[in-house]
Amino acid sequence: MSLIIKGALAPVAEYEPRVYRVSRGQGDLKAFSARVKETDLWILAPRDLEAEAVDLIIKHRRGLESYIADHPGFAQALTPLPGDPLAPDLVKDMLAAGQAAGTGPMAAVAGAIAQAVGRDLAQLAGAVAVENGGDLYLDTGRDLSVGLGAGDSPISGQLALKIEAAKMPLSVATSSGTVGHSLSQGKADAAVVLAKGAALADACATALGNRVASAADLGPALDWVKQVPGVLGALVIIGSKLAAWGDVELEPVKAG
């Protein structure tokens, strides 16, 4: 089975088709989308659960939107905010991820929503993959190959992450300074982080990409991310250069 991810997309005001997505199902898993406002999920599951997914997006967005309304500055923060034991679980995950990565909590929003919806759908379907703007929550019970898109890099589309079923649930998040609308202070074509928690992976992918302005930054950037508790592996692509650390297994993308 193969999926494709690319540089993460931040929420935008108008719907933008995710042209990098695989439109067909994979094996016995059906592919479908679920969208509410800026949240646009691509999902694999044993059956079409679009209606259920939409309800779950609404549920989790409602808690987040209410928290943002009650906490001015939360959505604009670019540095970590303190934890809040009274916050919804999704917000707690975002706050914790921001603290671990040194980012504002919204750097983790796409991953947090993908995981929240994915966990709930897995209880209904038993197997699920959820993609949200380049961030993946994977719990399919079968091996996957996740293709790496990296803008104009010659490496883009040539390699894939091999994800074994035994490692799931697993999250893979991607940020880019050259692709899409994601907020990045770096120039990486793709900064990818693997972790159990999707919010953590998302925030760390942003922070990792922020640290890469040139190929000379690859080593120091990976030295930073390997120190973050909960991160299992990472890779960065900039131009024709790729550097990886940790539990990262790459394979060539098969033609066709």
Structural commentary:
The chain has one domain: ApbE-like domains (T-fold). Strand 2 and strand 3 (39-45) form a beta hairpin. The protein has helices at 50-70, 89-101, 109-125, 198-210, 218-225, and strands at 2-5, 30-36, 39-45, 128-132, 135-139, 144-148, 159-163, 170-175, 190-195, 231-238, 241-246, 250-252. 49% of the residues are buried. The strands form two sheets. An eight-stranded antiparallel sheet has the order 2-3-4-5-8-9-10-11, with helices on one face. It is of the alpha+beta class. It is built from five helices and twelve strands.
Quick take:
The protein is an alpha+beta fold. The chain has five helices and twelve strands.
Structural class label: alpha+beta
The CATH superfamily is identified as ApbE-like domains
What is the total tally of β strands? 12
CATH level 1 name: Alpha Beta
The profile of the biggest β sheet is:
8 strands, antiparallel
Low-confidence stretches: 1-23
Total of DSSP H or I helical runs spanning 4+ residues: 5
Q: What is the correct CATH architecture?
A: Roll
Q: Which percent band covers the strand fraction? A: 25-35%
End-to-end distance: 13 Å
Q: Please give the radius of gyration in angstroms.
A: 17 Å
Which structural traits does this protein have?
256 residues, alpha+beta, T-fold, eight-stranded antiparallel β-sheet, four-stranded mixed β-sheet, 5 helices, 26% strand, disordered N terminus
